Every structure is written in C-alpha cells, then in structure tokens.
Amino acid sequence: QYVPPFTEDCQTGMYPPSGPTFKGAVTWYTVDLDLPPSERWKGVITDKQKELASMIQAIKDLADAFVPSGRLIDLVDRDLPLMVDTLPYPFNEEIRGIATASGVPLGEVVLFNIFYEIFTV
Amino acid sequence: CTSLVAEDPDGNLIHARNLDFGLFMGWDLKNRSWVITEKLKPLVVNIEFTRNNHTVFKSTNFAGYVGMLTGIRPHMFTLTMNERFSLDGGYIGILEWILGKRDGMWMSFLTRSVLENATSYAEAKKLLSDTKLLAPAYFILGGNQTGEGCIITRSRTHSINPLELDPKKGRWYVLETNYDHWKEPLFLDDRRTPAMKCMNQTTQTSISFKTVYDVLSTKPVLNKLTTYTTLMDVSKGKLESFIRDCPNPCMPW
User: Fold this and answer.
1) Is B242 helix (H, G, I), strand (E, B) or coil?
2) Probe site for chain A from B80, B199, B242 (most A CB atoms < 10 A)
3) Chain B, nearest residue to A12 by Cα
C-alpha cells in the first residue's frame, strides 16, 4: 500500500462519510426551469461567485504559463463570445446569465462550459 | 472517473461515481495536489431542477457549468458520464463547429437534455447512443427495472460495443473508469481492477450506499483528482454527494 499505485485493501466502514477522505457536504440549490434561462442560475452563482472567479483565474494562470504573451486569454475573451449564439438554446442564454450574475467575462464562462471538448485536445 | 451501476438481489439499482478532473493542470508541490481539482471542490453543488413546482431531475454540478455530468431522474433513470480519450477527439468536433458544420451535440448539453426531457431508461439510452457528438465519451446509465444498467461507449458518431447488466449470468454490476471495457486499462492508471476486486469482495447481497461508498473510497479509485463522490438510488429518487480528499500517500490520478 506504500508504493504506487498505493492500492489499499478494500475500505470498509467509510459511510456515513467522515475523517480525512471527507472534505465536506454538498449544498442543495433549486433551479426553476420556468424562469427565463438567463435568470435560472442567479441563486447558485450569487453564492459561488468568489469560488467561480478563483477557479477561472487558476485556469487563466495556467493558460498564461503556456502562452506568457497572454494571447490565449485575449483569444478567449475576444472570440469565444462570438460562439455563444451558435450554442443551442437555452444553454446559450443560461451561460449569458451566469456571466452577468458572476461578473466573469462571457468568453471565460463559455470556455468553462465547453471545457470537456477543449480538454480532449 | 469511476462510475458503476449495481443491482442488489431484490432488483434495486444503485448508481455511484467518483468525479476525477484536473489532470496535468498545475501541480501544487507544497500541498501535493492538483491546482484545478482543488479549485473545483468549492464549486460542487447539488441542484434540484423544478418545473411547475415539481422536481424534474436532480444533479451534482460544478457551479457555473450548465451541462450535466451526474444526475438522476427520480424513479426513472440515473446518468453519469466519464471522459473518453480518442484520436478522433473533441478538437475535430470543435473545428467542424467553427467551420459551420453543426450537426453534432456538445456532450454536456446532451446529458442535460436527456435528464430534462427523457422519461424512460429506453428513451435515454437511445438518445445517448444515437446522437452525434463533438467528442467521444462514456455514458453510464441506470434504469428502474432489473437488468437496466449499461455502459455506452461513444465515438463522435457511433455507440461501440454497449455493455449491459445481466444479473442472471452473474453480471450484477457494470463499472467504467476511462478505458474501453473490452481493452486492458493503461497499466499506469488501472483503477478498474481494484474497484472490481472490492465490488466482488462486497458481493451482491451486501450492495448498498454504504458498501459502494467504501469501494469508491479505496485508493487508487479515490485519488488526488477525485473532487466528489455521488451515490444515487433511482427507486427512492435519492442523490447524495460528498466532497473528497485523498490523504498521502495517494496516487496523483
């Protein structure tokens, strides 16, 4: 167990979660699908605004590490907003609403939401 | 990621997953952790999506991300997705999209549409198997009847070699990490073998939230990329999620 891949004996008694492998419970929110798409995520984002900005900043720092000139971020902030209207409704409107509620630039919220496809690169 | 659907002897289905993300995205030497993984953990939220004041579906999300990676349509089906790596990857899908060829679907918008609109396991399975995608993926789907559980391995255009639950033949669970189930996983990243060893050691008669959480808490199934663990019980309509940590020594992935 003390050499990679550190395979342990099968754990038991871990539930209900506690101890060093449990970092915390997860908060519940309601998203009302009857609301206009751009309004739906306001409650969640208002609560998580700081954490979202911090995560986006970490991705930007990473991008700057790869492309120190900052051109990658410029590309995201300038070009990705053009992509929002090509994304299917209501997701494009929900993304716009998240950018407005969080104050994070629209291109960076788009990047966060298409990260799966980007990451396969 | 590790996703599994297991059926107990009474035909109840449990769907569970570890969401691992942030590989190669900045390593924090001091804390021996991945930078992005640690930034994602505070963003983990459980969401109840309602329409006309009724619950449509529930999910575990990263706040700010409108697509779905983990969700339950109570009493109907449960759905998780794991990342699949393929040379015919997302960059081709994105290139086609930018060039105006937009007949494919963004992966997380498909899972969101399925959870929001499909009203049966069969309908969800058809949508997840047949919809053209921009990037390859694994969809792990659980239903609400005995035998309703499958791993849908997707290329951008096809479903390849679906693997189904078959309790009568002894396959009482299906388990997916990030490798095609008909191939050996990369030896450097074999989380499948330890997870299956622990499932087999648990045995079908003891399957429950408790024992499945134990399996997902065993290293290297639990690793430095694990952000959260979710447990779902379709017949009870229950979803529980927990933010995770992996104390040293622990595999980086």
Assistant:
1) strand
2) B242
3) B214
pLDDT value at residue A72: 86
B1 is known as an active-site residue: yes
Residue A24 sits at the chain B interface (C-beta within 8 Å): yes
A60-66 contacts, C-beta under 8 A, 24 or more apart:
A60/A108, A61/B26, A62/B25, A62/B26, A62/B35, A62/B36, A65/B26
Measured between beta carbons, the chain B residues lying within 8 angstroms of A98 are 64, 66
Residue pLDDT, tens place only, B15-43? 999 999 988 888 999 989 999 999 999 99
From edge to edge, which strands make up the β-sheet containing B137-142?
A27-32, B44-51, B54-62, B70-73, B77-83, B137-142, B149-154, B159-164
**B210 touching A (Cβ < 8 Å):** yes
For residue B237, CA distances in Å to B12, B13, B144 come to: 12, 11, 10
